[in-house]
Write a structure and sequence with these properties.
single chain; about 400 residues; alpha/beta; 6-stranded parallel beta sheet; two-stranded antiparallel sheet; 13 helices; 8 strands; globular
Length: about 400
């Protein structure tokens, strides 16, 4: 076993009912709170009035802002400017990945008084972030992005010259990640599908990452097992739904931990420009591309790097997800890509052309896809191989 290093993680409170611990945890940081949530889903549940009542009982001061879509640098700067003079003790993000990423960025900037553009990777001056950050508590209400466990806030500007980049630093890691599977109850099927496939993709890509290690491998396999048991039944709303929600919340959390430690791969490399240039939700990109990208990765390694260690890992993932042993690696690879394709179809994940991408736009996407995620893909893919991945799901 090779040595490894694990970066900072949040303290994790996981389990049904964990949401009820939030008021006491907030009180450890102070009495002035900025609540950052999604647009509607939380306010329509019993959790929202419970939280506000508990804050009122403790005579806490709070302000509330909502995130209706994937956050942009302009939105983050506006919200920071609006709330910077409030002297908040803690920022609490409650929602999907967009709400958590926005809350994370806001927490990092409230005391700094600089534009987030100064810190984004790959755009602007890329100044070193020195903080200080306001303490941040992350409470996911979807099972997909794993943002509760990462140090990066993903921000995007949409359009032909858009970008999707990270504001990233250890000081942005949440103090607490409060993961309550009961919060997934309000997720509609299309959200379950996209977010679930995002978690699966993150687990798979981190497992075969060039930086993977024994610690993250163990977590990735455990997460993949949870996805195998829960994703399709939860989407279908069959079986023991409480248990399925626990499994998917657990898988998403583990996917955030593993991606934060060892990086991702070609799907997320392509997801960055696709999400910047076209109005494609991140989970949809992951879900619609993972089967094609897996197949291309395998074929490329067999052709150019047959001794690549990731091939054995893909065979192991096939056994985990298909729940059977295979007599040959070829059989395992075929079964894995067939299963991922089957799930993509069953979960009704849209094709890329549904969002305006056509064959003429592929080169523009590929020209902007070789960021940090692509650098940990188990093999360097050619432009033609990347184009094949996209064409399969155009």
């Amino acid at each position: 076993m090779s040595g490894f290093s694990i970066a900072r993680l949040p303290r994790i409170e996981f389990g049904t009912g964990a949401f009820k611990t939030i008021p006491d945890i907030i009180a450890r940081f102070g009495s002035r709170i900025l609540l950052v949530t999604g647009a509607h889903s939380l306010s329509q549940t019993h959790h929202w009035p419970f939280l506000l009542d508990q804050l009122a009982q403790r005579s806490m001061y709070w302000q509330h802002c909502t995130i209706a879509e994937e956050p942009s640098p302009v939105l983050i700067d506006q919200l920071v400017q609006t709330h910077a003079d409030q002297m908040f003790d803690v920022v609490v993000g409650i929602g999907g990945g967009s709400a958590l990423d926005a809350a994370k960025a806001i927490a990092g900037l409230l005391k700094v008084q600089r534009s987030v553009m100064d810190y984004l990777e790959g755009v602007g001056p890329e100044l070193p972030y020195e903080g200080p950050a306001v303490p941040f508590i992350a409470v996911p209400t979807t099972a997909g992005t794993g943002s509760e466990a990462t140090k990066n806030a993903v921000l995007s500007t949409q359009g032909e010259h858009g970008f999707k980049k990270s504001f990233r630093h250890d000081k942005l890691v949440a103090e607490y990640a409060i993961v309550d599977p009961d919060l997934l109850t309000s997720c509609p099927p299309h959200v379950i599908a996209a977010n679930g496939m995002d978690a699966l993709t993150q687990l798979l890509e981190s497992y075969v990452s060039l930086k993977s290690n024994a610690f993250t491998d163990a977590l990735a396999i455990s997460g993949l097992q949870a996805v195998r048991h829960a994703l399709i039944p939860l989407y279908r709303q069959t079986g023991t739904l409480d248990e399925h929600r626990k499994n998917m919340a657990y898988a998403a959390l583990l996917s955030g931990i593993t991606l934060a430690q060892v990086g991702l791969g070609s799907v997320h490399g392509l997801a960055s420009p696709l999400g910047a240039f076209y109005p494609i939700p991140h989970g949809v990109v992951c879900g619609t591309l993972v089967a094609s990208a897996t197949q291309v990765n395998i074929h490329s390694m067999l052709a150019r790097q047959p001794d690549n260690l990731a091939l054995a890992k893909y065979a192991q993932v096939a056994e985990v997800l298909c729940q059977q042993s295979f007599s040959t690696s070829a059989a395992a690879f075929a079964a894995l890509t067939d299963l991922l394709t089957q799930w993509t179809d069953e979960l009704a994940l849209p094709r890329l052309s549904n969002y305006g991408l056509n064959e003429a736009g592929l080169d523009h996407v590929i020209a902007h896809c070789r960021g940090s995620s692509m650098k940990t893909n188990p093999i360097v893919l050619t432009d033609e191989e990347l184009k094949h991945i996209l064409l399969e799901r155009l």
